[in-house]
Amino acid sequence: DIYERGETMDFPKSVVDFFDGKLGVPYGGFPEKLQKIILRGEQPHLETPPAPIDQEKVTQDMKALRMPETEEARSSYCIYPKVYKDYIQRYHQYGDLSILDTPTYFFGMKPGEESWLRIGGKMVLIRMNYITPPSDDGFREIQFEVNGRPREIRVRDKAASEGAAIIRQADPTVPGEVAATLSGSVLRLIAAKGDVVKKGDPLMVTEAMKMETTITAPIAGIVKEVCVAAGSRITSGDLLAVIE
Q: At 88, which helix (H) or strand (E)?
């Protein structure tokens, strides 16, 4: 599939960095044809030595971000600075989310669903009862049970409060309709409405399961429409932009 359609596909940044040589070179080297497709014809930096790490700055950054003072944390921050920084910020904001099962972590609970969590050495049964539609100011009432005891909280739905519109699906038969490759969110926009782009030019950066993907133009033309904003939640197949 990649050999046949690779020029119209978008690859996660981690994959592009790997084929660019940033994680070393595998035994026997990279398949040249595959590497050329993934790097969009650019020359890989296989012989370029990595920039030296300023350990003193790393230490200061870690203290400022309240990171653990362990070798594992240091190496994680040096290798994946943005991913580890985001993880630490979420940890300080929400606590240890590793206690959640994978579907709950990625998609949240739906009314009627139950989930067992181990909190403070004890097993706790969480049951989601209902979620109200967003109010005019973008808040939802969430009613759930903790070991059978009802609880209710009021949570702001950022997407609703920002007036997010329903994203339509891209038509795969129309070359200029750019579709989301995976379910996740839009990190930042690069191209804007009216921009002239060449085939392969970056349009936006999305994130899915901690992987960043640069969405590129499948054809050359003018950006007629950008259908999402930075922070928008997206699902696979959603229409992101239109080029004509």
A: helix 81-94
The string of pLDDT tens digits covering residues 202-243 is 999 998 877 889 999 999 999 999 999 888 888 888 999 999
CATH H superfamily, domain 97-157: pyruvate carboxylase f1077a mutant domain (3.10.600.10)
Q: Taking 60 as the threshold, does the pLDDT of residue 93 lie above it?
A: yes
Q: Residue 19 and residue 13: Cα distance in Å, rounded? A: 10
Instruction: Quote the tokens at residue 226.
Output: 């950008």
What's the pTM value of the predicted model, to 2 decimals?
0.54
Dihedral of the CA atoms 189, 190, 195, 200 (nearest 10)? -120
Q: What is the 3-state secondary structure (H, E, C) of 167-233?
A: CCECCCCCCCEEECCCCEEEEEECCCCCCEECCCCEEEEEEECCEEEEEECCCCEEEEEECCCCCCE
Identify the CATH assignment for 177-243 out of 3.40.50.2300, 3.40.1390.10, 2.40.33.20, 2.40.50.100: 2.40.50.100
Q: What is the pLDDT of residue 80?
A: 85
Residue 29, Ramachandran bin (φ over 0: left; ψ between -120 and 50: alpha; else beta): left
Instruction: Outline which parts of the chain fall under CATH 3.10.600.10.
Output: 97-157
Give pLDDT tens digits for 125-172: 999 999 998 887 778 899 999 999 999 999 888 766 554 455 688 988
